[in-house]
Amino acid sequence: MAGELFPELIGEPNLNLKLKAKVYQFVYLVKVAGICMLLGKRAGYGIYDLPVLGTAALPMNLGYINLSGNEINMIDPFCEPQSVNIKNHPLETWKILLNYKCIHPDTLNAIKHHERYDGNGYPDKLSGVLTPLSSQILAVADSYDAMTSLRPYRQPLSQEAAVKELLACRGSQFNPKVVDAFVEVLNNVNKPSAKPIYL
Asked: Helix, strand or coil for residue 42?
């Protein structure tokens, strides 16, 4: 089964470790996609736009393909990248996506999920509304999942601690309206659907 899913790992001496890494990356991206769709629904995305927003999360880190294991272990959404290669991964993702026809703009916008609301992000140092809404949603979803997942450099944060961190970065790293909408989604995830707030 593993050989059918990941033929490049056949004969790999550390097969179990490599498979765990690949499964983690898949599950992580699917979780981020789900968070994006919940947040997009709250933001007023239509029935046809929600799947596009969700699938935009799936290729967002394709540029990591050229990173070493040590560099991947250093990735922290709340810290300045410690490697030029890490900082360049959005552009590497862009180059890969350009090889495919009929890519939706929201999918291409996925490379901007490291831009910051205050303009201190990368790769283009976009600020405020200059960063596409889909990218701002993806930034919050990605950061929340990163904080609440086990990472090589730390234990996962609780939901409460992660929300506290998002609120602390509201207006600097993240669009305040997107953070507010996300917190509302979390608070109402098991309650009847609320009306969209249209960001």
From this structure: helix
CA distance 126 to 119: 5
Tens digit of each residue's pLDDT, the chain (199 residues): 334 434 443 444 444 444 445 555 677 888 999 999 999 998 899 988 999 999 889 888 888 776 666 666 555 554 555 567 778 888 888 888 888 877 887 788 889 999 999 999 999 999 999 999 999 999 999 999 989 988 777 789 999 999 999 999 999 999 999 999 999 999 887 565 556 555 6
Distance CA 163, CA 94 (A): 30
149: DSSP letter? S
- Single out the residue of 164, 89, 173 nearest to residue 136, CA to CA: 173
